[in-house]
Every structure is written in structure tokens, then in C-alpha cells.
Design a protein that fits this description.
EC number (chains A, B, C, D): 2.5.1.54
CATH class of the largest domain in chain A: Alpha Beta
Number of strands of chain A: 14
Structural class of chain A: alpha/beta
Shape of chain A: elongated
Helix content of chain A: 25-40%
Largest interface: A-B, 51 and 51 residues
CATH architecture of the largest domain in chain A: Alpha-Beta Barrel
CATH topology of the largest domain in chain A: TIM Barrel
Radius of gyration of chain A: 23 Å
Number of helices of chain A: 11
Largest sheet of chain A: 8 strands, parallel, barrel
Enzyme class (chains A, B, C, D): transferase
Domain DAHP synthase ferredoxin-like (chains A, B, C, D): 1-66
GO biological process, one term (chains A, B, C, D): aromatic amino acid family biosynthetic process
Domain DAHP synthetase I/KDSA (chains A, B, C, D): 82-322
Oligomer: homotetramer
Distance between the termini of chain A: 42 Å
Strand content of chain A: 15-25%
Amino acid sequence: MIITMKKLAPQEEIDRMVQSIELKGLHVTMISGTDYNVFGVVGDTTILDDRKLSASPYVDNVQRVSAPYKLANRVFHPADTVVDVSGVKVGGSEPIVVMGGPCSIESESHTDEMARLVGEAGGRIFRGGAYKPRTSPYAFQGLGSEGIRYMAVAGKKYGLPIVSELMSIDKLDEFVENVDLIQIGARNMQNFDLLKEVGKTKKPVLLKRGLANTIEEWLMSAEYIMAGGNENVILCERGIRTFEKYTRNTLDLSVVPIVKQRSHLPIVIDPSHATGDRKLVEAMSLAAIAAGADGLIIETHCDPPHALSDGAQCLYPSQFAFLIEKGREIARVVGRDL
Amino acid sequence: MIITMKKLAPQEEIDRMVQSIELKGLHVTMISGTDYNVFGVVGDTTILDDRKLSASPYVDNVQRVSAPYKLANRVFHPADTVVDVSGVKVGGSEPIVVMGGPCSIESESHTDEMARLVGEAGGRIFRGGAYKPRTSPYAFQGLGSEGIRYMAVAGKKYGLPIVSELMSIDKLDEFVENVDLIQIGARNMQNFDLLKEVGKTKKPVLLKRGLANTIEEWLMSAEYIMAGGNENVILCERGIRTFEKYTRNTLDLSVVPIVKQRSHLPIVIDPSHATGDRKLVEAMSLAAIAAGADGLIIETHCDPPHALSDGAQCLYPSQFAFLIEKGREIARVVGRDL
Amino acid sequence: MIITMKKLAPQEEIDRMVQSIELKGLHVTMISGTDYNVFGVVGDTTILDDRKLSASPYVDNVQRVSAPYKLANRVFHPADTVVDVSGVKVGGSEPIVVMGGPCSIESESHTDEMARLVGEAGGRIFRGGAYKPRTSPYAFQGLGSEGIRYMAVAGKKYGLPIVSELMSIDKLDEFVENVDLIQIGARNMQNFDLLKEVGKTKKPVLLKRGLANTIEEWLMSAEYIMAGGNENVILCERGIRTFEKYTRNTLDLSVVPIVKQRSHLPIVIDPSHATGDRKLVEAMSLAAIAAGADGLIIETHCDPPHALSDGAQCLYPSQFAFLIEKGREIARVVGRDL
Amino acid sequence: MIITMKKLAPQEEIDRMVQSIELKGLHVTMISGTDYNVFGVVGDTTILDDRKLSASPYVDNVQRVSAPYKLANRVFHPADTVVDVSGVKVGGSEPIVVMGGPCSIESESHTDEMARLVGEAGGRIFRGGAYKPRTSPYAFQGLGSEGIRYMAVAGKKYGLPIVSELMSIDKLDEFVENVDLIQIGARNMQNFDLLKEVGKTKKPVLLKRGLANTIEEWLMSAEYIMAGGNENVILCERGIRTFEKYTRNTLDLSVVPIVKQRSHLPIVIDPSHATGDRKLVEAMSLAAIAAGADGLIIETHCDPPHALSDGAQCLYPSQFAFLIEKGREIARVVGRDL
């Protein structure tokens, strides 16, 4: 960490700052600038709060050299983490995992049909929304517990672990009992109370990147979960918010090699929410695999125009199956199974 | 609402869509385009889900003409809403309200001192964080209930209603009992479960705009609270995320006249979090008042360099007092008291 | 095009607007809204200026249904455009073209060596910067004409057409004579005078997307060139500006399927400038091919750490060659040669 | 400047980098990190190219402590620059200058009328577009030289210096002769050839911030002009591009205090282009004055609905006059005349 103090900082202020840092077991080296006083801090700087250091009127700025996350950092954990989702392994050199299913769970028979179709096509985890984060209070909010129950039944029947979004702490027990992979949605990526609670379980967590969150903040949210004792975190990119209007969000595929370099956690791509448009999903899915992703999570529906939510981005089942076939060929080129 | 269907859409698909909309009591008018089939939908379109309509492979796009919010919409409620925060009125032609206090509540004596300083300077609501949303799990997380208690005591002593951030539903009772104005933070602007719960109370709510949320989404979140029966919503802008690096966020002051035109709800500006830099707070506060804001929420601390969080953006008490004086003069020019 | 007028708009204002549009040969249909007067405009709306229509105080908003570009629009030109760059064909079902070379041209011998290496590795167009857009006036500004000469000599020797960036109209003759593919850089994407001038030539143009430009604005800039009579436009995505800090820019790969759907022009990806980091280039290149790109433009240098500019994003020649090999395998999966 | 090298960097690579920097007359200090080798560079680091230093595979990152601009930097030029625009002084403690006029120059009589109205209302510089940067090749492109002539005549008649946008080097002589303040538009902020050419004149320059450019890049573009010998640069903020859709751009008013702190150059605000909506212009103008701006540039038109361009954001003359009156009162509160 590099701290730059103003040239006019009185010596006693400088001494006070240096001492407060050294008291925490870190070392401070001075580099005497011509226009500034610059200090280097060596040691475990994750325990320092940069905004607190910046508070002194004599401090010009504070810059980190090493990342503020530790448990999620590949520097300290060189080996890939492989997360076991009720038997389906995600990450490392394991086969690429495709998760599929409808945006919203709609009925028991529909859920059964969708799980069957996903499994037949080669999907290995069944996704579906029972509690739905909707921008409008007047939109369909999901079937809730009933939806979770339909998913759990269908998942067992077809041998597919299930993933669904948890929005609120008071449903945590229900999810721990019935869901194999707990999704934390983009809007809750910095709902720190929720992160802390899932961190106390051992359940695998699919942590979506927030719409306007940096990769560093995303890894810090993973760190929250891991700091609680739960290291089973899978990261999921689902597009970020930009000025572009032809897509719902902008899919940032560069996260794949970046996450692989900076972290040991698995990384999965969600091209459905990222693009918001089924016509773009196949191209972005193949691109994600070529880039080295550990998995995909894709919306598919047997009748997209009549889906209860987000039908515009749902693949028809035949498109879903075709995508997996094509994806398998791309996977082979980059040395992975699917 | 305008729905554009592809030229090649079969007549039966067109009929089906038109019928499904008319069944909801809306009227559909056709405009026959040269390259598209364009339909206009007339009536209460807030009940339609644009993403669901877009799901048909024959639909090219769906555009709203009128806003998707109703209760928060000035069109249907021309008169300004004035929110009464335990006696302090915010909005309409009421005097501009300055809310002040430290980022984090630190101790009982410090809280008492800060409340006294805020009141003496002309602040009318006392702010402070007891539950803190921190990016790092290793940073100070706030005093919790203890902090709320210190605030409640100090607020009563100096006659200042208090505002503090609620992060989790399980603390709602504590807030309803002890806090005068419940803050929903930027990271929770789309924590819909939380919005629904505060919507069931009658407590005034300070709803911060999310870092990457449009004004429309912000008003939709207000709509969530109001749809539950709680119309006491005050909007608060605290900066949005952009590419600029010299400020923590970019303060979007144009929200002031926009919110005034589109909604009847009061609008308050938080220049401390928006800029992240105390050297910018005075200029942005005066600008906010000149733009027509109904209030300000400002961080102030008796010893910013030793504040437990966000000291870099805290004003010294003398700066806070000076700002109120200057702000009062600007307020007069735009026809308001302060 | 849909025009929404306020409910209180006087009839004479409505009539005036309708007439002014009909005078241009377009048809106007009215849809009587409950809260607004909404009109649909049918015909060639590219000749209407939406901002001019919005100028009336009685107009609430103006929304386009069809795109504002015509020559670049696939609706009116269903067949893929294939651009012939001095014998190397780009677009349609032609083999994917890899363009390679250093960021800056440095010396005659170095240019010769780089062209040889690019050709040997399978690159088919030689890239290099002679006139350099640099953020700092104190940074190396390129060799200018001398650099163009070196490139032209080396390109001929190794049978590679050359591409280089044109920054100013006064160098246009030099480029028309010596360069096979004229690059318009991201910073000049809306330098309309420059676009008009290259539009008067028949030279192929590589039009980079501006850092903060929408796909629609990009296609409008292509339209500028095409409206002048030059239809040899190749689009090039090189990353957009977002809040993310771990990459120089955010590569928006979704442009590949979007451009293919909306336009008939070829689309090429520049992963070097998009990421700014050589460690990310291979993954993003393979992803671009999987997504369906018609080509890649990649920086490579025989000694990146001593490159005169942008060494951090340059591939070593062996990396460049390896990338082409891998890329060829991916290309085959998506049905293309390389 | 702080350079972080990987722990595994061989000593000879480290030595080579240190030597190359010391050869330029700078000093290098080492801070031995636990996980990295960190170096501090002291001296005039504006001559170093950070991207070139990052090129070594052993360098992890490079961070600047001091700004990369020198001539525009207040550290080296503490006194405010006051730019004299043919007698009208802008900056320092001079009265706030309001520039007004139509978006596009339309005819001789209209120009005369507009200049008269601007002068009568208290505007002190007359603005107008003769060469127009339009997104669409099919939109009105301006009257060109004829428009400049109309402006020059009207400006002289009413004693108002004139400001207009220069888009291309080949019109520079025309502008030097006829225009008092040369505007460099947002789209050309990084048209470095154009910046260099205006840098060779002594004409005052109004440098608009690019739509997606950081304040640092903006000051670097000012540096380009100043490095050529022309120190008469006025900065102009006109909104940046964000995800928000209710405004054309997002006006970033925090630039006012930031520019005042980091630079000595005057700063002017353009609320018309920033918001794109006349209903927001007054509020944003008053806010800009309250924030400390040195001037405003505002579009006004005697008949906005029939303006040839951008009528939606043009004020009616009475609104323009009212704004100046109100602005004068705000100016007084912040200690300035207008």
C-alpha cells in the first residue's frame, strides 16, 4: 500500500500515521518525493482501511499494491477450487457444467417437463426462479416455497442438482434443505447481511456479479462468504450496466481470464441475463467456453412467448440442445470436456 | 405503449397478442408500417410486463410512452408530498432540511457531542450509521443496536429526529420503534423484500438511489414501498458510478428538477457519499440548493481523521455550520427557507 | 417513428406537426391515448431529425421504431458485404482474417522483421501505427510518413496488405497511395469531416468503435462513409469505457452477433486495445472467433518490454502464432476457415 | 510514480528498469514488499510513459502519485489564469460570463436578432454553430463560412465576442481571423492534430470535455494546447455519458471544485448539451454558479420549436433573461459578479 502525504504535512502528523500503522504489525518505508511525502506499507495490508487512512487532511491519496481480498486470492491459494454441487463438480479441470431451466418456475408439470428437457439435452444442473426480484411491484413475483418444492421433486427425479435465487435471510433454512446451489443475485451482491448468513452454511453459493460492481468488489463479496467459513463459492458474470442500448447489459467476458489469474474460484457465465435477447445467447455461450469459463447458466423454456417472465431471452429447448453440442466441440479445442 | 412486430409475423400471432392485451381491459390500435407492424396500446399500461411482451419471436421491440410507476407519478398526484419526520417537514414549500452527523456511530459521548454540534449549527435531523454496509468483511461493521440507542438518546436530548440505515428485515422492529426516518441504502435499493417490509409500516423512508440505477428504477423502488401502503418516501441521490476517477461517484444533480417534474416526492442530496471528498462537499451542497433540492444529508465529525469510517468525506463542524449559513442565502434566492 | 404529444397540446400545434411530416412524404397515424396524444409515422424516417421534432414544448418524446441508418442496414441489403483489401477478402463466409503487427512502427529493420513474423505465423494483413494518437503531448507520437514507407515496403516484400491509422485529412493522399486499409481510430469515430473525406475514396476503411459510442452511433458513422459512396467499411470493436478497473476497457463481444443481425458489414475484434493486457488477449481472441467475428487485429512485437508504445498488450511472436493455430480449430467448429 | 514488480523478477531485469529511469534524471527508491518489489520514482515523472513501463512481463502495475500534466497543473502555477476573450475576461475573480445563442446559425437576420437578444439579456459572448457535428449524415450540417460571417457581423454590431466550433484544421485560418473564442467540441477533445494546431495560435480556446473522458484526460488535452504555446484555455463541461436515460448526458458539476483545485484554468458549464432538455437548464445553471463556475454557455433561440437543430434544449429568450437575473443573485452569495 502506498500512502501519499502532502508536502506541508507537519512532522507530528506523519509520525502519528506511521506509528498507527506499525502498531498493527506492518512496516512503513519512506520515499521522500519532491512534491509529496510518499510512504510504502509492507505486510498484510488487507487489515488496513484505505478510506480511513485518506481521512487525514494531510493525506493526498492511498493506493493499494496488493489486492484487498485474501481468501479468494490465488496468490495465497494457487490451486483451483473445485466446488461439489451435490455430485456435480464445478471448476479446475472438471468438465464444463451447463445449468439450464426457466426464468420462473410456473407449475408442477411444467417444472417436470423442463427438468426432463434440460437433462436430456446434456444440462447437469437445473435452474429456476421461485422468488423473483422484479423491478415492478406489479409484476409476477414467483411461486415461492411451492416453486422450490416443484424444483426439488423434478431435480431428484431426473438426477439434476438444483440452483435457485435466495433473496432474503428468512428463507435460508428452506434453501439449505432443498436447494443444492444457492444463488445470490446481482442486486444482492452487496447485501452483506445475506452474504454473512450464507457464509455460515456449507452450501455451495453461486455469487452473481452486481450490475455496476467491479471485479474487485465482487471478489470482496466472495471474501465475505469465505470469511464466514464457506469456501464453496462459484462466481457468475451476468453482464454489467453500460451506455449501450442494443443489449440489456454488456457481457464482460474478460472476467474469465481475469478471475482465473487473480482467484482460484470457478467462474460461470450467464449469457441470458447479460444480453436479454435469445438471438445473442448461442454466440455468447460459445465465446464463454472458448474464453475458458467453467460453466454456463442459461434460460430455456418449452414455450418462451408464454413464459411468465423474461421469455425474450429464453432459448427454445432445441436451441439449448444444439448449443450444448456446439459448446462441446469448442470445449475440446480448449482442452475441456462438457 | 408501442409494440413493434416483425413484418413476417403470421396473422394468428398478431391476433393472439392483441387479444391477450384487450382481455386486460386495454385498447390496441394498429399502425401499419412499411417494414414493421406497429401497435399502440392505450390504457393503464403499468399492468403490462414489457419483457413478457418481448418474448414472442415475432415482436421486435416494446417501448413505453408513459412511465411504469403510478403512485409515485406526478401526473396522477399533482400536489407535492410533504413527509413529516417526527415534526420536521420535508418537501413542498417547507424549509430545506439539513441532516447531519457522523458516518458511523462510535460511542455514547461522541454521539451526544455530535448531535449537539449538528443542532447548534442548524441541522434539523441527526444522521448516523449503526449498521454499516462495508465492502470488506475486515472493516468496522458498526455498533448495531447499541449505536441506535445512543442516537435515540442524543436525538431526544437535542430535539432532533434521527435517520439511520436499515440493512436487514430482522431489525425492522428496532427501527420502527427507535428511528424517525428509515434509510434504505444504495446497495439495497433493489432489495425488494426489504422494500416490501418497510412499505407495510407508516415510518418515513429515505430511499437512496442505487449506484447504477436509473431514475426510473429508483421511482419503481419508491413504488414498491408506496404499493404496500406507505407513502412517506423521501428520495435521496448519492452519486452514480461512472468511469471518472477523481471522485468516488458522480453526483447527478439533474435528478432534482427531473424528480420534481415526474414525481411529487421530496428529493434530498447526499454530497458526502457522492463525492467521497470533503473538499467538494460545500460546492456541491450549495449547487444542490440552487437546483431546488428539499434537503441535504451531510457527514460531519468532530475529528474526521480519527473517524471510524469515511473520515475523508466528513466535514469539520465549523465547515458544516458555515455551509448551512451559505446555504441559507442560496435558499433565499430560490424562494425557500432553510 | 412514434411521437408522443402532451394531452394539452392545442389542435393547431398538432396539425402543424402532422403537416410538416406529411410534406416530406411520410404518413402519420394517430392513436388517441388517455394521457397523451400518440402518433405513428410510417415511411422513410431516416430523413427525420428526432431532436428537431422534440423541440416543440408540446412534444413529450420521440422514439424510433426502425434504425436511423439505411445503407449500413441489413434490412435493405440482406447479403453480407465482403470487403476486398488488396486481395484479402474480409466478411461473409470468407476465411477469418488475422491482422498483426506492432503498436508503433519503430525502424525499417524492425518493421521488416515484424512483417515477416506476422506472415509466417499466418497473419494476412500487417498492422502498425505511424501516426499515433497519444493522450500525453510528451509521449512518442510516431514516425509519420517514414513509418508508412517502412510498412509499405515490408508489406510488399511479404505479400501482406497493410493497415494503419489516419488521424488527419491532410494525410489522406499519402494513405490512399500507400495503405491498403485505412483505419479510423476510436477517438475519431465521430470526426465527421474525416469520415466524409474517406467516404469520397474507394479505399477499404477499418472503422473502430468509439470508447463511449453506442452500436447505433457506430453504424451511423459507417453510414457517413457509405453516404459518400465508399461501401468498403469494416467495423472494429476495441472495447468500451466502463467503471471496471482491472481492464483498460471492456470488450463488448455481443457486438458480433448484433452487427451480423443489423448490418451486412464485416466485423473485426481488437482484443489488444480492448483489454490492454497481453495475458487476456488469447482468451478474448478465441472467444471472438467462437462468437462469429470476421477477423482479429492483434498487437504483436518481437520484444514487447522495449516496444515504443503499448508493450503491455503486445503478444510475443510465439504467442501470436499459437493463437492463430488455436483460433483455426475454433473457427472450424463455427464453420469458418482461418 | 510507484512501480510494482513481481516477486520473481530476476535481479537483472530490476537493474535494467532502474537504470533506464535514472538515465532520465529521476531517482528510484526501493521498498521491499513481502509479495512484490515496489519502487518509488521521484522527480519530473510527466516524462515517463506508464504504459511503456507496464510492458515488462515482470511489472505488475504502475501508479502515478502526481498528475501527468504540468502546464495545466495548479501545483506549478498557483495563480488563476484569466483568459481575455477580445475584452471579456473569464476566470479568477472576474465576473461570471454567460455565453448565449442558437445551436445552429440559420440566417443573417436571425443571427442579428439572436445576438441582440443575448446582449440585451446580459449575455456577454455570442455563441452559434456554423460547422455542426451531426450523428447522421442526413441531418443539417450547418451554414459553414456563411454562418461564421453572419456571427462576426452581428457580434461586432452588438459588442459581443463570438464563440463557434472548429471541426477541422483546414478552417483554422478562417476561425483565427473571425472568431474570438475557438470551441473544440466534445467529439474532438482527443483529436490531437487539431489540438496541436490551435496550440500554435494565441486565440482563446474553449475546450469541451469528451463524452467519456476523465478529468485527467481533459486536462491532458489542455496540456496539448498549452504545450504548443497557447495558454488561453477555458475548460467546458457538457455532460458525460452514463446509463441514465432521462437526460441526454449526465452533467458532472463536481468538475467545478475539482478543476479549481487541480488546475488554474477557468471552467465553464454547458447545461444545454448536458441535459438536452430546456426544462432542466435553469436549475442546472443556477447550480453551476453556486458551485463556483466561471461561466455558462447556453443555447437560446427566439423560436425553439422551429430551430434547425437541438430546439428541445434551447431556452426561449425570456427564460434566458430570467436565468441571468436569478444567476446574478446566486453569484453574489458566492462572492462573484455576473
